[in-house]
């Protein structure tokens, strides 16, 4: 990860970055304890709220996605479903409902991403922090492509 990437992440969501780094480092070291889900509100345009929970073998992040615009919400729902199906692994799941206590209502759904100890630490942190922005980008790009048809 470059210095520019670290600075960009740190400027946007320093708490999230530190939380993910600590959890994934503990996972790699093999001394990760099971914790209850912790709610984190991000500052993304999608209105994403995330929950982070840990078990001794993995870190699980659940994103509750909300979009104000109905067309954005419809496109985001399709993008999340396709992403979960394309991965084809139990580590990435999409659901319309969430069983976590305190989970806010979502007009798009809930995306769960699990990271285990075999995955690259830096790459995982970057992907987890940027996931709401990644989704925002694909929603906007899809809408632009549809308008050109």
Structural features, described:
This protein is of the alpha+beta class and 149 residues long. It has a single domain (3-148), classed as Yope Regulator, Chain: A (2-Layer Sandwich), CATH 3.30.1460.20. Helices cover 48% and strands 22% of the residues. The protein has 4 helices and 5 strands; from the N terminus they run H-H-E-E-E-H-E-E-H. The protein has a 5-stranded antiparallel β-sheet with strand order 1-2-3-5-4. A hairpin with a 3-residue loop joins strand 2 and strand 3 (58-65). Helix 2 packs across helix 4 and helix 3 crosses helix 4 (121-148). The longest helix is centred in the C-terminal third of the chain and has 28 residues, at 121-148. It is globular. The mean pLDDT is 77.
Domain module tally:
1
CATH class: Alpha Beta
**Rg over CA atoms:** 15 Å
Tally of alpha and pi helices:
4
Report the sheet-strand fraction: 15-25%
- Terminal Cα span: 38 Å
Can you summarize this structure?
With 149 residues, the chain is an alpha+beta fold.
Topology record:
Layout: H1 3-12, H2 14-29, E1 35-41, E2 49-54, E3 58-65, H3 70-87, E4 92-95, E5 109-116, H4 121-148
Antiparallel strand pairs: 1-2, 2-3, 3-5, 4-5
Overview features:
149 residues, alpha+beta, Yope Regulator, Chain: A, five-stranded antiparallel sheet, 4 helices, 48% helix
